[in-house]
Write a structure and sequence with these properties.
With about 80 residues, this protein is mainly beta. The chain has a single domain, classed as Beta Barrel (OB fold (Dihydrolipoamide Acetyltransferase, E2P)), CATH 2.40.50. The protein is built from no helices and 8 strands. Strand 7 and strand 8 form a beta hairpin.
Length: about 80
Amino acid sequence: VGVRPEHFGSAGEGAADLTAAIDVVEHLGGTSFLYARTSHGEDVVIQRDAAKVPETSEVTVSIRKSYLFDEKGLRLR
């Protein structure tokens, strides 16, 4: 599954909620990128507008904005 950082939302806004532990926060002007690990062990990058970021963040993934790939790395449609 592939999800762009800007397509993660706040928990409760989408179809699939998950909790991620924040490892690193990169502040780039008005945008921050959160490098995190989900409770399932997957590494994710989340884009946020907020300057202050908690140690863990509950986020949602929009199924419509997610990409699926096969075992060869080719996108499924």
